Amino acid sequence: MTQETKYETLRRALVEIIDSRMAPHDPLPSERELMQQYGVSRMTVRQAVEGLVRDGRVYRIQGSGTFVTERGKITKSLTFSSFTEDIRARRMTPGSKLLLLEVQPAEIDVARDLFLEPGSPVVHVRRLRTADSEPMCLENAWVPEEFAAALARGRDVDSLYDVLEAAGAAPEHADQIISATVVNREQAELLGVPNNFPALRVSRVTHDARGRAVERAISLYRADRYDYRVSIARSRKK
């Protein structure tokens, strides 16, 4: 049996403490306290805490410390990952309900983002995304028509990115804009919230390793169950 590393031991201990003894927004012990208590290096402490940040268990406030994330809310750091990866990282079960899968002419904004001529055929995929069977996100995605066959074969696959990767267009990086909005009556019914409920609107254009635009997506996330966490630092003048 492989011996547990110091990083793994510390991370497991912190998870147990967070789950059993700490309340949302409680501060984690300082780096120095963790180093002394567990007899590990500063690098090991930082590695363990960074893993907890990526998993959404804790969040950082620059200059103040690291704090326990509110339970019941999915916190996403600004790293490139799919909805499926985010939910699995939080030990929840991702799911999708396919609402639409059809080839249609690209509207001007979709064509622009996918570097196509307006009216070019694209595949429109509309899905309701869930975590532990609870509605979390309403997603509209458009991809070039060349991936239509792959999407038809993978219509039961939770992750669109897995389908694109299998088709030789693995998502590599993305540009996205996050804004505040409210849902309309149809969106509210699908998400299980009242009309005009607040939501996060995430507009994303995804590229593969060759720089091709392979997806344009607009996702509406329930604001009561999803947030984005950003770590920032003040720039110092030289």
Task: Give your account of this protein's structure.
The protein is α+β, with helices and mostly antiparallel strands and 238 residues long. The protein has eight helices and ten strands. The protein has helices at residues 6-21, 31-38, 42-54, 83-89, 108-113, 148-153, 160-166, 185-191, and strands at 58-61, 65-68, 74-77, 94-105, 121-131, 134-144, 171-182, 198-208, 213-222, 226-229. A six-stranded antiparallel β-sheet has the order 4-5-6-9-8-7. Strands 1-2 form a two-stranded antiparallel sheet. A hairpin with a 2-residue loop joins strand 5 and strand 6. Helix 1 crosses helix 3 and helix 2 (31-38) crosses helix 3. The longest helix has 16 residues, at 6-21. The model has no long low-confidence stretch (mean pLDDT 85).
How would you summarize this macromolecular structure in one to three sentences?
The chain is of the alpha+beta class. The protein has helices at 6-21, 31-38, 42-54, 83-89, 108-113, 148-153, 160-166, 185-191; strands at residues 58-61, 65-68, 74-77, 94-105, 121-131, 134-144, 171-182, 198-208, 213-222, 226-229. It has 8 helices and 10 strands.
